[in-house]
Known about the structure:
The chain is mainly alpha-helical. The chain folds into three domains: 7-55, no CATH class; 58-125, no CATH class; 127-159, no CATH class. Helices cover 76% and strands 0% of the residues. It has seven helices and no strands. The protein has helices spanning 13-32, 39-55, 57-85, 92-95, 101-122, 128-135, 138-158. α1 runs antiparallel to α2 and α3 (57-85) runs antiparallel to α5 (101-122).
Amino acid sequence: MAVADVSAIGYFMPIFAFLLVFIVIYALLVKTKVLGESPAVMLFISFILSSFFIVEASLVDFVQFSSAWFGVIVISLFFLIVVIAFIPDIDLAAFFGKGNWFAWVLLGGMLLFFIFSSAYVFNWVVNWGMLKDWFDSDWFGMGLLLVIAGVVSFVLTKK
């Protein structure tokens, strides 16, 4: 009986993580056009960011863990959308439309997922004493005041 040895794929995992991050970052930069329309700048930035995944081995573990669970979440959301599509009195365009709370909840869930997966992979814990000292600092008060002023000015200029 022939046995296939797939242990060599572990040797290429940093390269696969580099390529995955490079392609995703480049696609996001091209789609959003945050850095303009110069492909050289977008390629350079995505190359620099994805090279961190070669230098730091724990980032490769983070990509492996996150990509597997992210795939599970995407498939689950697909099945949720299919189930919602069979509900007779729901307009899907209005359900996923602009300004809907569902998109924000979904974004928040994705953000929490990446925070928890990074806590699992990088094994970080919260130093509550340091966090309390940070909340008691003058910088936090000034930052909180700026955020509140920004939200208030946004709300006032909207009306």
